[in-house]
Design goal:
This protein is of the alpha+beta class and 293 residues long. It has one domain: Jelly Rolls, CATH 2.60.120. It has four helices and 15 strands. It has an eight-stranded antiparallel β-sheet with strand order 1-4-13-6-7-8-9-15. A hairpin with a 3-residue loop joins strand 10 and strand 11. 37% of the residues are buried.
Length: 293
């Protein structure tokens, strides 16, 4: 009986996590986004344009971009990935300002990388600030579910002092902003993107497994978009209006004790690579590593 009670409670917690995302005033694709490239492969799936499907075929990848730029915000979407053999295919959900600041851009990444065995999806997160692309802050994780079978929620919470990545409301990574990072912590307004493209050169088995276009098109669906933050003129690096906002992100004070326990459990089971453990790549670890749980 105790076992069944535990299973029931876990199911209720997962359901509550999904409901919490849906309740956050989702924005439709038509309301908040424009096509970025591969227009013929960007398709809205309902008359109201709530959901969008992007795809990769032998002719083109595709992607979309938010109409507004945001300063310290929470970005979330329900995403269902392409099924079957998808080695070399990269699907993304990320923020960036590279179009405005090409040499000093900021970026926060969630990238989905498929393994060739058909069983294990890898999620990669990354952070760049002020054009620091020579310093990768990558982490990779296995997922405890097949993300091509159903929608799951993926979230980037970017605040002035912390950046947190979530999967189904479970925090999987927290990056503190410390003084030693300087401009390498993202601090300029960013757009939200979703893309799919050919990453054959690196995405699966270090580039050994390529995209097989006989299995194309590869389709990824996004829904329940959340853009919870302060939209801003992208030429402004700070905004009094955003600083005085009463939004959750502006007043975010870091993870709770319970959230840290969830994050620790996830990382113990599913973390497969962290730049903070890579002494060959970084004999002198980057400064924030001393502050990351």
């Amino acid at each position: 009986m105790e076992f069944f009670i535990r299973v029931f409670l876990l199911c209720m917690l997962e359901l509550a996590a999904r409901i919490s995302h849906v309740a956050a005033n989702p924005v439709s694709f038509n309301q908040g986004f424009d096509k970025l490239f591969g227009d013929q492969n960007v398709v809205t799936l309902d008359p109201a344009g709530k959901s969008v499907r992007i795809s990769l075929d032998k002719f083109s990848g595709s992607g979309f971009i938010s109409r507004e730029k945001y300063f310290y915000s929470k970005f979330s979407a329900a995403i269902k990935l392409a099924p079957g053999y998808t080695a070399g295919v990269v699907a993304t959900f990320y923020t960036s300002n590279c179009q405005i600041y090409p040499n000093t851009h900021d970026e926060l990444d969630i990238e989905f990388l498929r393994h060739v065995d058909g069983k294990c999806w890898i999620v990669q997160t990354n952070l760049y600030g002020n054009g620091s692309v020579t310093k990768g802050r990558e982490e990779r994780y296995r997922l405890w579910f097949d993300p091509s079978e159903d929608f799951h929620y993926y979230t980037i919470l970017w605040s002035k002092k912390w950046t947190v990545f979530y999967v189904d409301n479970i925090p999987i990574r927290e990056i503190p902003r410390i003084e030693a990072m300087g401009g390498e912590y993202p601090s300029k307004p960013m757009s939200l993107y979703g893309t799919i493209w050919d990453g054959s050169s690196w995405a699966t088995d270090g580039g050994k497994s390529k995209v097989n276009y006989e299995d194309s098109p590869f389709k990824v669906t996004y829904s329940d978009f959340v853009l919870d933050g302060c939209s801003i003129d992208p030429t402004q690096r700070d905004s009094q209006n955003c600083d005085n906002s009463t939004s959750f992100v502006t007043n975010f004070g870091g993870l709770t004790k319970e959230e840290r326990i969830k994050m620790g459990s996830f990382r113990a089971k599913y973390l497969t690579y962290s730049y903070c453990d890579d002494r060959k790549r970084y004999p002198n670890l980057l400064p924030e590593c001393a502050h990351i749980p």
